Amino acid sequence: MDSLLKLDRCTIRFGGLTAVANFTMEVGRRELVGLIGPNGAGKTTVFNMVTGVYPPTDGHVLLGGEPLNGLKPYAITGKGIARTFQNIRLFISLSVLDNVKAAFNLHLKHGPMHALTRGRAFLREEHEIENRTLELLKIFNLDRYRDAMCRSLPYGDQRRLEIVRALATQPKLLLLDEPAAGMTPTEKSNLMRLIEFVQETFDISVLLVEHDMRVVMGICKRIYVLDHGIKIAEGTPEEIRRDPNVIEAYLGEGPSEAAPQTGEM
Amino acid sequence: MSRALLVLVAALLVCLSVSLFGENLIASRYAYYYDILITIGINVILATSLNLVNGYTGQFSLGHAGFMAVGAYASASWSNHLDPYLLASIGGANSPFATNVAFLISMLLAGSLAAIAGFAVGVPSLRLKGDYLAIATLGFGEIIRVAILNTDFLGASRGLSVAGSYTNLFWTYGSVAICVYVVLGLVHSTYGRGFLTVRDDEVAAEAMGINTTKYKVMAFVVASFFAGIAGALYAHFKAFLTPEGFNFFRSVDVVVFVILGGMGSTIGVIIAAIMLTLLPELLRALAHTQFVPPAYQGLLENRLILYSLLLITLMLTRPQGLFGDPVAIRKRFTRSRGN
User: Fold this and answer.
1) N or C: more exposed end of chain B, with fewer CB within 10 A?
2) Residues 154 to 193 of B: which have CB under 8 A from any A CB?
3) Complex ipTM, two decimals?
């Protein structure tokens, strides 16, 4: 497999608490990989480790063979990893159009001086960004909201806008943090199709952290399962479904708080 | 040339012609109004530049008077000590060309030194957020004031007289035009949208590849530069500086302009600066009419009481300021923590 993202024996400790221990994982190019686990298993911590929010205490994170350790989040995004957030984080005082435009900041050729002299090259670049933003919005059928404030969009559209914004940074790998959280079953089905569509259209890898088994099992080619910060299983959806460790982690013995078929509230 | 740049050039030409043909008339016949006019200009520069930090970038700075002091004392010292040589070499103290060149140089020096101070203060303190940043910048402002108070070269507590009352309508309103142009030009570009993303959500901004620290420092440096310019205009307008002119309350005045006008609204902040500069003058005029008993005159003349009342009323009825963006400010009060 042509590997894009590789986590090599990553451990992260917060004081005496080991949130993720000795975790190894690989995401291939153009692969759709899922990361699941019960509440508090350390999924979001893995995310934060990959995106540079918390550097790993031990181990290495590699993107295309290049180490990402010690890089700030914005620099990691610059290397080609974009993400969405579990609780939507749009730029709330900006319009839908400007939210996406803001993400073009990363590959911007002009700087503050060009913004002041407003030369021809500057105006051309601004024009190009506007066009590409509109193209992206059109692909996701969000262009009718272009001048609306992002808070006024329906919940599902806000989630999609976040994905559009992440794609505007031209990533190689897209990390989706619980995109199905708080969605209705219909919205979830739409989301599954959307994720597959994004993966194919933009020809990128997707790492999906999700609570909802149906979503993960439905679209991921390979799945990693975390429990208490330790990898307890990896494999295809079929293998994961039958894995006794996974069943125990989710259902436990006797009544439990998380069942595999229900999503997070 | 783009339209924005044309507007700037036109504005500068208007300032120049008003200054060339009307300056002496206004200054001699309507000295009181001339005074207010210049003060308004200086306050607009301070408010517009602070708005880049407090409004557009969402960082709460309380040290603007400190940067203004750096600029004021820098340009004053330059003019006091080096103007004689400079003027002698380019046409003498009576040549308008020579004096204006000398003033331009001292203004640029003032702006640059203030910008350097902004960078030096900004890099370490912009790691702080919210109230902590406010306190750090407040501390900086006080350090500058106390340092001047104890520097004999700068006149210490005796104050410093400034050679050359160079400030005129052209320099004041020319600087206003450039300051407004720079702030708006920066903010209305893809580069400048970065400032707004830092205000809205730092975590998301970083995740979009935006170096938030760089933007904060940038905002701080630009704002300090213009505070320094305002300081230079102030120095060569008042012709006498005291450290007390740059105390904490001076910073608060500017913050009040920004909050009242609406954080992140340049036009609102400009209007607020104009209104709040005029208001004490109007109240003074009112206080000395027959309708107000002498015992209450002092009360009306005290602008701080009025500011406080205004702020309380405004915060209760319109927390986003007169022209501010309601969404941005609501966020400020209901910010959710964590990821």
Assistant:
1) N
2) 181-182, 185-186, 188-193
3) 0.87
Give the pLDDT means over successive 10-residue stretches in chain A (265 positions): 87 90 92 90 89 90 90 93 92 92 90 88 93 94 90 89 94 92 88 92 93 88 91 91 86 55 46
| pLDDT for B335 beyond 60 | no
Best residue in B2, B186, B190 for a mutation probing chain A (most A CBs within 10 Å) = B190
DSSP-derived secondary structure letter, B305: H
Burial class (CB in 10 A: 0-12, 13-18, 19+), A193: exposed
CA distance A166 to B121: 33
Q: Domains in chain A and their CATH numbers?
A: 1-80+171-265 (3.40.50.300), 93-168 (no CATH)
Cβ contact A93–B336 (<8 Å): no
Query: B209–A169: do the CB atoms touch at under 8 Å?
Result: yes
**Residue B301 burial (C-beta neighbours within 10 Å; 0-12, 13-18, 19+):** middle
Q: Inform me whether the C-beta atom of residue A112 falls under 8 Å from chain B C-beta atoms.
A: yes
* From B188, B211, B218, residue closest to A74, measured CB to CB: B211
Beta-ladder partners of A13:
A18
Render A26-88 in DSSP notation, one character per residue: EEETT-EEEEE-STTSSHHHHHHHHTTSS--SEEEEEETTEE-TT--HHHHHHHTEEE--SS-
Instruction: Provide the CATH topology of domain B3-249.
Output: ABC transporter involved in vitamin B12 uptake, BtuC (1.10.3470)
- What is d(CA B187, CA B198) in angstroms, rounded to the nearest whole number? 12
Total residue count of chain A as it appears in this document: 265
Tokens 């400010």 belong to B329
Whether B212 has its CB under 8 Å from any CB of chain A: the answer is: yes
- Pick from A105, A118, A123: CB nearest B194: A105
Q: Which residue has the tokens 């020579």?
A: B98
Write out pLDDT tens, residues A173-183: 999 998 888 88
A181/B contact by beta carbon, under 8 A: no
Q: Does any CB of chain A come closer than 8 Å to the CB of residue B251?
A: no
Structure pTM? 0.90
Q: For residue range A39-52, what is the model confidence (pLDDT) as tens digits?
A: 888 888 999 999 99
- What is the pLDDT at residue B96? 85
* A101 to chain B: closest CA residue: B190
Question: Dihedral angle at the C-alpha atoms of B199, B200, B205, B210, nearest 10 degrees?
Answer: -30
For helices B31-50 and B64-90, the axis angle rounded to 10 degrees is 120
Tokens at A10, concatenated = 């990553």
Cβ distance B206 to A72 less than 8 Å, yes or no, reads: yes
